[in-house]
């Protein structure tokens, strides 16, 4: 499949308008995708307030650097979802570093080990190959079925299930340690979706 027919022309048009500084294009992108970005960030951080900050940062980045999104590489929806996830992971790392410096437990009273497992899981997500990461984001964070993942990515259903299976297997392998068992980050990765 070539890049010109795989993704909807709306992404290309929005991208062109963003590059030329059209503020209404940013508004359209925000209206269409801010709820998705906020949901992804909230699922990663567990905080509505932090999710709002991450969402704002993602759209500021889209406005100030529209060339970072390349329409031929994927959909704007998937790109924004991934940016939201990366931003949320970064905020969690910052919060963890602050807690470590202060010697306190998580903001919701959860023990550090849970926070560490959560950060390890989301860090492992960022290390997946892009096709697997896109499929997993759509399925786990955007709530899509494997059939919907296939349609949104423009791939066969068998390819979508293979990407999801490979992504989950890779996550489990990356998170498995010598003491991997119930309650381990690897076990959490399998149950994340």
Automatic annotation (TrEMBL):
Keyword Transcription among record annotations: yes
Keyword line: Sigma factor, Transcription, Transcription regulation
Chain positions covered by the region annotation Disordered: 174-193
SUPFAM superfamilies: Sigma2 domain of RNA polymerase sigma factors, Sigma3 and sigma4 domains of RNA polymerase sigma factors
Domain RNA polymerase sigma-70 region intervals: 30-94
Domain of life: Bacteria
UniProt KW Chloroplast keyword: no
Coiled coil regions in record: none
Residue ranges annotated for the RNA polymerase sigma factor 70 region 4 type domain, each copy included: 119-170
Family in the record: Belongs to the sigma-70 factor family. ECF subfamily.
Protein name as annotated: Sigma-70 family RNA polymerase sigma factor
Organism name: Streptomyces chrestomyceticus
């Amino acid at each position: 499949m070539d890049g010109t027919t795989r993704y909807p022309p709306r992404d290309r048009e929005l991208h062109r308008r963003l590059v030329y500084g059209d503020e209404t294009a940013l508004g359209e992108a925000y209206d269409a995708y801010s709820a998705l970005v906020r949901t992804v960030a909230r699922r990663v951080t567990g905080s509505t307030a932090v999710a709002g900050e991450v969402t704002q940062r993602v759209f500021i980045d889209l406005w100030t650097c529209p060339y970072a999104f390349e329409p031929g590489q994927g959909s704007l929806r998937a790109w924004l979802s991934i940016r939201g996830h990366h931003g949320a992971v970064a905020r969690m790392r910052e919060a963890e570093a602050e807690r470590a410096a202060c010697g306190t437990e998580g903001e919701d009273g959860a023990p550090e080990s849970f926070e560490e497992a959560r950060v390890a899981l989301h860090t492992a997500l960022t290390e997946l190959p892009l096709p697997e990461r896109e499929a997993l984001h759509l399925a786990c964070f955007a709530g899509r079925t494997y059939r919907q993942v296939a349609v949104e990515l423009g791939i066969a259903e068998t390819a979508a299930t293979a990407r999801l299976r490979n992504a989950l297997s890779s996550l489990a392998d990356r998170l498995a340690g010598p003491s991997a068992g119930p309650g381990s980050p690897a076990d959490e990765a399998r149950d994340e979706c």
